[in-house]
Design a protein that fits this description.
The complex is a heterodimer of chains A (574) and B (53). Chain A has helices spanning 3-27, 33-38, 45-56, 59-72, 83-92, 94-101, 106-113, 116-148, 153-200, 208-217, 236-253, 255-262, 267-301, 310-313, 322-352, 355-386, 398-406, 411-447, 453-475, 484-508, 514-534, 540-557. Chain A is 76% helix and 0% strand. Chain A has 574 residues and is mainly alpha-helical. Chain A folds into 2 domains: 3-299 and 402-447 and 474-568, Sodium/glucose cotransporter (Up-down Bundle), CATH 1.20.1730.10; 310-390. Chain B is rod-shaped, with a radius of gyration of 20 Å. The N and C termini of chain B lie far apart (67 Å). The chains are: A mainly alpha (574), B mainly alpha (53). The A-B interface holds A 77, 81, 84-85, 87-88, 91-92, 96-97, 99-102, 109, 112-113, 212-213, 215-217, 221-225, 236, 265-268, 271-272, 275, 278-279, 282-283, 286, 350, 358, 510-511, 563, 565-567 and B 1-7, 10-14, 17-21, 26, 29-30, 32-34, 36-37, 40-41, 44-45, 47-48, 50-53.
């Protein structure tokens, strides 16, 4: 990074933090819990929409997604197919319900419907899974600086944690929303710029149309796959059904999202915010994946490193594996050059409609793809031989390698600011929600019910600092999770099915007791963890399986824990 | 008394602040979102196959 990059990065980050603190402090004097947790319920639809999108789009989205497309094609976009349907269902059922009950957290609803232990279980599952997911989303950008500046990853995690805690503690949800507006502007500007530049950086004899054909030939445009296969992670059906349950659970029951749209000034504003998200999310993810596919094309004509995480390959220097690594790198460069030549023949043949040349080039390209894959595998084996703990998945390094090596001065700083902004925007919502849930659903409800408003806000600020510290601690152990975008969705999928099942039971199983649902949720979690450990079922299906299992088990165990109408319960039972 | 009684004891009347803007009903909005979704799936399916030569 050069001086101009540093200026751009520092200006962007300091402006976001200072401005959001200033704006939220002006409005938060004498704040109540409604002000601090739901920003006084005065947000317009566009603020709700931006906040919801910024919360979901963490740094992982921008670091990992292009790499995912580079390696695996664009099929990951299918995991968002359930989102528009989920938004509509939540607008019909959840938003009017939450607004009518005037709740601060989603879990308050469960005590009104069931009992305290079911509310506490759902809140606790949220605290566990969201703190792990937040740690992953803070860890992601630390990769950036560990590459660029050689800083220790821990310091970067610490700096991000401090910045986020500063404005989240200061202004609560209002500060988070203010910051997210500016962060989304930075993110949009940065990603549009990199999208144009990656296409502009293609060789002069390769047109955009050629690039599309190269990406398609290489299997990167596999955006929709209608085959039904439970063991295939990303198909239309796993995205539509598994993804629907994942998104229903995430947006309907995860406080980090519920808190965003409950800050809408009315049902109308909250609904419009979610519906806008429903229409924009798939195009946004598609666009980011498309950038990854274009990076793949770029690197077909400009030899990429054999392994993108160069901090791992640097460890081979001076070892007995160094010579073999250099030999493999040399072979990789030669094969890449041959492949670039064959691709030019292929694109020429496509342009002229010369089928014979096209078929000959295709055969050559398929063989060369196999050779390159084998060479990369050999390097991974070397890395593992040298260090059994080596991280041999370099998906998360592809986007940043392109940014650092191929973007002009100034834009590198902007793109690093994009990664930081995205990390901070989602982490702030998450820490904000973790603190709210801890105070409202656990602390005030179980330990200290009679706090004044001012004292409650003070305790929530304290909880914000505590969760910031915990997440920074968790983030230190997130180094070996493979693709981060998959990791964060997988952690969510382990818990979301059961949580959604609890909420659906509350909505629709009118004669089921809280204890029956509580027991069903515990059994379901045990089953989901067994499925994750002992089977190869794609993780998106955990959401559907978990949800259905809670509902089925709650009905099955209902005779053992019969439903008692609330007016027949003793005060102690309530 | 049903188990849903507490939920039906509305603490905040939402009927006044849930009017659908632009269209005459929320159903039209939901239809728009689902229509956009169907169009996107169609476009992505076309995109998946359009450049495979």
């Amino acid at each position: 990074m050069q001086l101009l990059d540093w200026i751009v990065l520092a200006s962007a980050l300091s402006f976001v933090v200072l401005w959001s603190i200033r704006k939220s402090r002006l409005a938060s004097k004498g704040a109540t819990m409604h002000d601090f947790v739901l920003s006084g319920r005065e947000a317009k639809w566009y603020t709700v929409a931006i906040s919801v999108m910024a919360t979901q789009a963490s740094a992982i989205t921008f670091i990992s997604l292009p790499g995912q497309a580079y390696m695996d094609g664009m099929r990951f976009v299918q995991s968002y197919l359930g989102l528009p349907l989920a938004m509509v269902l939540l607008c019909v059922v959840a938003i009017p319900m939450y607004h009518r009950l005037n709740v601060l957290t989603a879990y308050e609803f469960l005590e009104k419907r069931f009992d305290l232990k079911t509310r506490t279980l759902a809140a606790s599952l949220f605290l566990v899974q969201r703190s792990l997911a937040a740690a992953i989303s803070i860890y992601a950008p630390s990769i950036v600086l560990s590459i660029i500046m050689g800083w220790h990853v821990s310091y970067v995690i610490f700096v991000i944690g401090i910045l986020v805690v500063l404005y989240t503690t200061s202004g609560g949800t209002r500060a988070v929303s203010w910051a997210q507006s500016y962060q989304m502007a930075i993110i949009t500007l940065g990603m549009v710029s990199v999208g144009f530049l990656v296409v502009w950086s293609l060789p002069h004899d390769i047109s955009f149309s050629d690039a599309l054909h190269v990406a398609a030939f290489s299997g990167k445009f596999n955006a929709v796959d209608f085959t039904f296969d439970l063991n295939n992670k990303y198909t239309f059906w796993s995205g539509l059904l598994g993804g629907l349950f994942l998104q229903l659970s995430y947006f309907g029951t995860d406080q980090s999202q519920v808190q965003r749209y409950l800050s809408g000034e009315s049902v109308t504003q909250s609904r419009l915010g979610l519906l806008f998200n429903g229409m924009m999310k798939i195009p946004m993810q598609f666009g980011i994946l498309f950038i990854g596919a274009m990076m793949f094309v770029f690197y077909q004509f400009s030899t990429p490193p054999i392994f993108f995480n160069q901090s791992e390959t640097a460890k081979l220097a001076g070892t007995r594996y160094e010579a073999e690594y250099k030999h493999l790198s040399g072979e990789y460069e030669q094969e890449s050059a041959k492949r670039a030549k064959a691709l030019r023949t292929y694109t020429q043949a496509v342009r002229t409609g010369d089928n014979a040349s096209k078929e000959a080039a295709s055969a050559h390209l398929e063989a060369s793809a196999q050779t390159l894959t084998t060479l990369k595998s050999k390097v991974r084996v070397l890395l593992e031989k040298n260090d059994p703990k080596a991280v041999t998945n370099d998906t998360n390094y592809i986007f940043l390698t392109f940014v650092i090596n191929h973007l002009p001065v100034g834009l590198v700083g902007l793109l690093i600011a994009v990664v930081f902004s995205a990390s901070m925007s989602s982490a702030a919502s998450e820490i904000n929600a973790l603190a709210s849930t801890t105070v409202i659903d656990i602390y005030k409800r179980i330990f200290q019910g009679s706090l004044t408003e001012a004292r409650s806000v003070w305790v929530t600020r304290l909880a914000t600092v505590a969760w910031g510290a915990i997440i920074v601690g968790f983030a230190q152990f997130m180094g070996s999770l493979g693709s981060l975008i998959e990791a964060v969705n997988k952690v969510g999928s382990l818990f979301y099915g059961a949580i959604l099942g609890i909420f659906l039971a509350a909505f629709y199983l009118k004669r089921t007791s809280g204890t029956a649902v509580f027991v069903a949720a515990l059994i379901t979690e045990a089953v989901i963890f067994c499925l994750n450990t002992f089977t190869e079922i794609g993780f998106l299906w955990y959401n559907l399986i978990g949800c259905v299992l809670v509902l089925a088990l709650a009905l099955a165990v209902s005779p053992l824990f019969p439903f008692v109408p609330q007016n027949e319960q003793s005060p102690a039972e309530k | 008394m049903s188990n849903h009684a507490p939920l039906e004891d509305a603490q905040h009347d939402v009927s006044q602040d849930s009017t659908a803007p632009v269209f005459s009903s929320w159903q039209a909005w939901y239809g728009l979102v689902l229509g956009v979704f169907a169009a996107l799936v169609g476009l992505m399916y076309w995109f998946s196959h359009a450049f495979a030569s």
